[in-house]
Design goal:
Blueprint lengths: L1 E4 L3 E8 L11 E8 L1 H10 L4 E7 L3 H11 L4 E6 L3 E8 L5 E8 L9 H4 L4 E5 L8 H14 L3 E5 L3 H7 L1 H11 L3 E5 H7 L2 E2 L2 E2 L10 E6 L2 E6 L6 E3 L13 H16 L2 H13 L11
Parallel strand pairs: 1-4, 1-8, 2-6, 4-5, 8-9, 9-10, 10-13
Antiparallel strand pairs: 2-3, 6-7, 11-12, 13-14, 14-15
């Protein structure tokens, strides 16, 4: 089973009709969706591979709703209940690009997960957001270490340059060096910020993650897979007919990739499956598949 640890929140997705007009009204369409990077990965993966979500939500009606919605997709949902369920306002411009205003709430309050939550996991995936905040940061590190000690594989997603800048580049690289995840997912700007892949070539910090395969996405450009001890290879992204909302595309890619990788061990096939999974969310509001 694939385990995913991290945020489960409510997304308030706003499709803005034209530029925001400061100090007055701007036309928009508003959608409420279950969100959270980790929850998205678990949801998208569940149709392809058994998936379990580990996290924390508030003891409130919004928490009840997002837990039920995620479980309705076939995810084995394990949550602690405390605090207030988080919400993220996601502003989507006419090009589909996102501006996110996160209030993670209870998602940061996850404490050490019980042993039975990790039982049966052959892989644990953790978005980088989960390292930002306590006690969830320490909980995420502890869970990754325990899964590795139990013989499982692990992966981390760099999540966002904004989060990386706030967390600290050197601190994040040191943490990755300590955790030695099997896989690291990043987009082009995140990978360059970390010094792992620059202009398609291994960057100055690549040697610090000697045992980690780095998967760098580039939007509509080819994805680069850098396997330790091998020359990086690329996998092209098939054309997508419509791009209206990029929310959740990276999570959908990670879900498709991990399902393929855990099923076959073939990195090229896993990348292609990640592209196919990501393409399915680009025309729908929020992290939902059309």
């Amino acid at each position: 089973m694939l385990g995913v640890l991290g945020d489960l929140v409510e997304d308030i997705v706003v499709w803005v009709d034209g530029p925001l007009r400061h100090g007055t009204d701007s036309s928009a369409r508003v959608f409420r969706r279950r969100g959270g990077s980790a929850a998205n990965v678990a949801c998208f993966a569940a149709g392809q591979y058994p998936a379990r979500f580990l996290g924390c939500v508030g003891a409130d009606p919004i928490g009840d709703g997002v837990v039920a919605e995620l479980g309705g997709h076939g995810v084995d949902v394990r949550v602690q209940r405390r605090g207030r369920t988080g919400s993220i306002v996601v502003l989507i411009d006419q090009d589909g690009e996102r501006t996110m205003l996160p209030d993670r709430g209870a998602a940061t309050l996850l404490e050490r997960v019980p042993e039975q939550w990790l039982a049966g996991l052959t892989h644990l995936h953790v978005p980088g957001y989960s390292f930002d905040g306590e006690p969830v940061g320490a909980t995420a590190v502890d869970a990754l270490v325990r899964v590795r000690q139990g013989g499982g594989s692990t992966s981390v997603d760099a999540s966002s340059t904004g989060m990386l800048e706030q967390f600290g580049r050197e601190r994040f690289l040191a943490l990755l060096g300590e955790l030695a995840p099997t896989l690291l997912f990043a987009n082009r700007s995140e990978s360059a910020f970390l010094g792992l892949l620059v202009d398609g070539l291994p960057g100055p910090e690549r040697a610090r993650l000697a045992g980690t395969t780095v998967v760098t996405k580039a939007g509509a450009g080819a994805t680069t897979v850098d396997v330790p001890g091998q020359e990086p290879f690329t996998v092209p992204v098939p054309p997508v007919a419509q791009v209206r909302d990029l929310t959740g595309a990276g999570d959908a890619f990670a879900a498709g990739f991990l399902a393929g990788f855990l099923d076959t061990g073939d990195l090229r096939l896993a990348t292609a499956l990640g592209h196919r999974s990501a393409a399915r969310v680009l025309a729908s509001p929020g992290a939902s598949m059309g």
